[in-house]
Structures
1.
Amino acid sequence: MTIYENNEIWFVTGAQLLYGGETVKIVDSHSQAIVNGLNESGRLPMNVVYKGTANSAAEVAEVFAKANVDPRCVGVIAWMHTFSPAKMWIHGLKSFQKPLLHLHTQFNREIPWADIDMDYMNLNQSAHGDREFGHIVSRLRINRKVVVGFWQEESTAAQVASWIRVCAAWADQQNLKVVRFGDNMNNVAVTDGDKVEAEKVLGYHVDYYPIGDLAAVQADVTDAQIADLIAQYEDQYDLAPNAQKDGADRNQVVEAAREELAIRQFLADKGAFAFTTNFDALHGMNQLPGLASQRLMAEGYGFGAEGDWKTAALVRLFKVMTKGLKNGSSFLEDYVLDFPGDGAILQAHMLEVCPTIASKKPRLEVHPLGIGGKADPARLVFTAHPGTGVAATIIDLGARFRMIVNKVQVLEPKAPLPKLPVASAFWKPEPNLSVGAASWILAGGTHHTAFSYDISVDQIADYADIADIELVVIDESTTTRQIKRDLTLNDVAYMLKGALK
Ligand code: MN
């Protein structure tokens, strides 16, 4: 994943020539200082590049046209140092197709009470210049992030940084290919949807391949490749006795490695960074490729089980958004309820939970799988570490996509789970099980989610703004009555939205 290294954010400063060329030169030097300051803050995951001042409608149109076509540019930050009459931004903004952040900052932190004069006032006009700019962006109904703060403050850089992560993930989704090995699980509603609309609205492309195509790739996997990969397993995990060399089920580890190597090859050939499997479509395969799914997720691939391509793309989104962060993210599924106290939910899946969320070294085990009719699959078994995070989903309502996000608290399991042969996470949905789960169900949320410890609700909101899709937030302040009102108002808003554009 090189998106953070190979791409950049552009910084454009609005000004005008009313105050003379000398003023523009100062604006220019201040802008460069701010960009340097942000880059040197050590907080930004991607470089910001200063693109100069825009002093006329023609200059605004030119910089946005360049931003649209430059594949390195994944978003633009705009700042109005002086008053920049906003009619000159109309054409450029109307044509702009990438994420926009409006930074409401000022070169100096404080008012220089003893020295302030009208020259100073005319140069440092962000307070009203940024409002003029904000007016036209609102009038054009363009979604954008607004960050208010002094540019040298850590909290300002942190807000810009979290938005840049969303921009990177959004850009990745525009080039993402999701491979489906087999179709969606028959009769399941929530994991299905409109792939054409997803490509139009969310950007990614979804392709189907018969599982036999993957089975055929296994024929090219060599024993030496398998031996190398198993050496990695032995290095990274504790192996259960039956999975160890000369163990009774060692061959299932060998076959798991063969499947992993085949999937890696297949995805590389297709240029795909997300995939789905289906336990019901495994012709020519030895076992459900659970270990492969776990390990590929850990490397940044998106994954969805039972053909759930929307969640596969969302897990990839989370992986790109959290690149380099340490707390982990995963595909998960709501499995079993625990009612005492605030209530909680045991999250797990048949096999496929990402080991980046593990509390300690995962254990590689081989057990039978009750469904699918294949041989016993290898899998990593662990429990997730405690912490706060978000669980999110995107559902297809027919006429639109809805993103639902629930803040969750991952808890220590109340007791060991000696008989559970899969990885799990035990979490309390905010504000509690009663309201959290009721809200999620009322919103029509999936049983599959993308989960991360390192993503904030604000970042999910930024993503929903960029994609221009509906957002439903379930957090500490949520009540069931408020969620029902939100859902009703959203229905009305989306009905009217066409008329407002
Ligand atoms: Mn499932």
2.
Amino acid sequence: MNGGSSGAAGMPDRQPWHALGVDETVARMETRPDGLTNAEAVQRLKTYGSNVIPRGKGDTALDLIWRQVNNPLIWVLIVSALVAMAVDPTGGVKNGLVILAVVVLNTIIGFVQEFKAGKAIEALSRMVPENVSALREGRKLTLPAADLVPGDMVLLASGDKVPADMRLIQLRNLQIEEAALTGESVPTEKRLAPVASEAGIGDRTCMVFGGTLVTYGTGTAVVVETGARTELGRISTMLRETTDLQTPLTKALAKIGWYITIAIVVIAIGILLLGTWRTMAETGVEWLPALRETVIFAIALAVGAIPEGLPAIVTIALAIGVQRMATRRAVVRKLPAVETLGSTTVICSDKTGTLTRNEMTVQELWTPASGAFAVSGVGYAPKGQLQREGTLVKTAPADLTDLLLAGVLCNDASLANEEGQWKIHGDPTEGALVVAAEKVALDVEKARAQHKRLDTIPFESENQFMATLHAQDGGRILLKGAPEAVLKRCATTPGGRVLDMEAVLREVEKLAAKGMRVLAFAAQPARGQTGIEMHDTQSGFTFLGLQGMIDPPRPEAIAAIALCHQAGITVKMITGDHQGTAQAIADQLNILPKNPAAPKAIAGAQLAQMSEVQLRDAAGACNVFARVAPEHKLGLVRALQSRNEVVAMTGDGVNDAPALKQANIGVAMGITGTSVSKEAAGIVLADDNFASIAAAVEEGRRVYDNLIKSLAFVLPTNLGLALILMWAVAFFPFADVTHVIDGVAHTMRELLMPMTPAQLLWINLVAAVALALPLAFEAKEPNVMRRPPRNPAAPVLSGFVVMRTFVVAILMTAGALGLFLYEFRAAGDSGPAALAKAQTMAVTTVIMFQIFYLLNCRSLRDSMLKIGVFSNKTVFVGIAAILVLQALFVYAPFMHEIFASAPLSAGDVLLSIVVGALILPVIGLEKWWRNRG
Ligand code: ATP
């Protein structure tokens, strides 16, 4: 076997695949139209390797590092470090180095977090497997796309992603969107005829290429190249895949970062001016030395007020959210979806399979001549009986048998008993027809062998029918589909009588009102042809009858809908099914509007007639939309969005992609969804279940809550540290402080500094990160699904967070400064030990405040007692870690070296704990006051 010019295995003198005829290609690939044998496939997999494209390189390590450093706050830090080193060659160098060390540490933390988050999101894409339909040894199999080998025969249908480069050998109206390769988003119509050797990729109409999408029709193709040897594989090393970790929140935070930077620069200038002026006035020195002494305060302000740990906290909280959603069967494909989920106000869901079980059972049959029959039994076991008006029917009348026969012939599903369990292979709607026929004692295998199928027009949602051509009895075309689609093609009944359309429609309504999906069946003699085209199916059919099947609602969907209602989210059903069926199921699911005047169900065709204003009103008032085509879905999403709704929309078909993209969150189905819909979606449901959407909303709300908690925890510390410095520069006394420089004691009159830049960094980075991170693990608030959705336009920093920031910051400032002065005065002298001790006291007090405040931040509304003291153990791990670190800070000699800290007495530590605990009653009071209404 040799490839064409495009393959690595190819021989240059051979013609390329697209210039070869069908038979030549099949021969050269050493395969057959019914596929390879399993042994050949195994052998070829060994020779050619898996059909996977080596991933294009993502961001390089350098890109990631640069992203960490390229942040205004980090620039402020770097400049501060350089200034510190330049103005004060002795003490400043140490401060400068500590600041630079923090920059490096911060870069490493950010780098590791982003790298891990990127990997996690990348891994999620593998959770949604790509399967293909292929023929091996004449049998149709579902294989992982990675197992395809050259020579495999692959069956393509609309919605599929083409899994490898292939030569088409059979097709019906096949259209492929090749934007991934050619950039051309208009689908290309494919043909079988070979094209010129020199044709470009876009003109190779007899080929389909890996990574492109089937937008219409069906086809069979032989794989010619796999993995890295495909056209996409060859360019993918040039494509750089970036995992975008930006979300609205991270963008908002980046903006807040800028504001903080500007504020810091302005305040730093203020501090410089005020400090210089006070130093000149107090000590009588010139402005330059005075300025030099004050610079350290400005630097301390910069490092104290910058929330260095925040980016890492946000990334981690989002990554945790994504992972938790994955365990609850909602796979996030686009990170912003995590946040948007929390503000979703409307969920538009498909019916079949998402709200219902997609386990269809035929329960009623109807023919024009014999009337209604009931079939007993539920599920896929072919056990049940035929009844008429409550009495058993032993032998089915001929017209009923023909109806059931049409049901199994115009049908691609099969029924199998696997280890004692009856299973359907194929579409559940079609499976139900097979089960019904078996129950009424029709031998499906035999019938299918007798009535050999010559050609098929497959079911497409937009046509609403499927047609097949059979050889038996001089040839017959069978039609099955939605009653509207089938009836308009019928004129007669089997006896040759004129069809009483009214009577049939009444019967359809009756079945639909019971929540049944109704399929209609029809037939007409063939005219000796061996294939069928659309125009053969337009008219002249004989109506055979109806089959009505139930598909019960999922019990977990009923519960999830109730939860969504509590959470202020409206659930709307958008279905391709009949209006009556949709309404009956909606009633069982409790999604019909409470307002009796509101329309119960609207059909897609009605939507299409509406003006923009009418559509807007209808989209708001009605919760059930039936017989909806994909283009109506797009209109509905837009109409709902114009009502300021945040819309989550599910979809599985190839034509749903535009609506999925337009929705605030597109939700695709992991099992039954087409590749096209999955690529367009923000999240993919691993189990196709509505309940997973509700779970994802809950997780989304939790993530956002926890992010706000982290902000409410981190920001007061930064403001507090800034206030401490501002207060010190403005109001602190000057003291004669003795410094020992090169063994010589110098006494200088200077402005007392409550904390050095290195100490501020200690609080800000080590403590804040160790303490704020556990908040990302906080369980959901008890009322998370009992409050209305978050307004996406509301600012991240709500009035509440700002107020809380000020209250806590002021309390922290007062406590830390008070204890600093107390400790400094208690020392009785003003030597370096006194200053170090007082500064250590101030730092320890702030840390104690943080520990107690952390306990408060675990819930923004409820007291800790209400949410359970030990419900988040990570918080206590964080607190234990910080207590150990702080003990080192206070008592370890090497820490004294780095941070100029000093040991405290037990009494001092106790005092700092008592003062830190003051925050409990204050915030407790605040929570009580806010909860009182
Ligand atoms: P939902 O949108 O709620 O998931 P659906 O996607 O199953 O519903 P469609 O698949 O578009 O809806 O089906 C629309 C109609 O087409 C059905 O109500 C049924 O009458 C008919 N139909 C469904 N499946 C088949 C099939 N395999 N062959 C023929 N007709 C079908």
3.
Amino acid sequence: MAKIVILTGAGISAESGIRTFRASDGLWEDHRIEDVATPEGFGADPELVHEFYNMRRATAAAARPNAAHVALAQLERAPQHQVLVVTQNVDDLHERAGSQHVIHMHGTLFGHLCHSCDHRWPAPAISTAHDLCPACHQPATRPDIVWFGEMPYRMDEIWTALRGADLFVSIGTSGNVYPAAGFAQDAMRTGVATLELNLDRSSGSHIFDESRQGLASVLVPQWVDQICTAKPN
Ligand code: OAD
């Protein structure tokens, strides 16, 4: 059984209508990272930060998985492969396409976290800085999102899976944000084969054994079809 670890980024959800970050029409063109994606920004203006994530939650809730998400869910069901999706995305399109083994290393738009007692609970559609934590009753509600300067979730599990994989595939990510941007290099050091599927060449394309350029909705189903019909060695 081939063990495949798949890293996904904003590019896989772009064709579902969710904006990427670093394109000319990307989210970071309209919003400063320091204001909406750091603990300091949240401390300075929690209402602005809640509004930013309320807007993103509404967009994600209205979006539908595209052919790339669906193909990855199909791959997971193929008996000859063991698949783990590690996503930097905070939408739930992998799960809604049917993927069951998904790690949200940057958190989720659909969760809240208490910054006083660390309790987690499902996020309502609209949240405000005055919302109380249901466990400790403090007005300490924040989105369950990993911000710049914070440690992404479940890194030990991810590194263990990477080291034990036969193949690492990176889909729709620009390779600008660590630690995810270092996964291809980590994989290669332990002899894991690497493949990139992205709209254009990313800053780390040269590191991969193979890099294919095009739309995720085309490249991902093609690649899944290719490996599901390949004859075992
Ligand atoms: P970026 O916006 O940095 O990069 C998106 C990548 O997807 C680019 O390389 C695009 O070329 C590619 N792309 C766009 N449309 C595509 C399509 N239809 N098919 C295939 N590829 C496509 O987004 P990420 O790399 O995901 O973190 O960003 C990583 C992290 O930076 C995010 O998780 C977020 C952000 O700041 C935090 O907020 C902590």
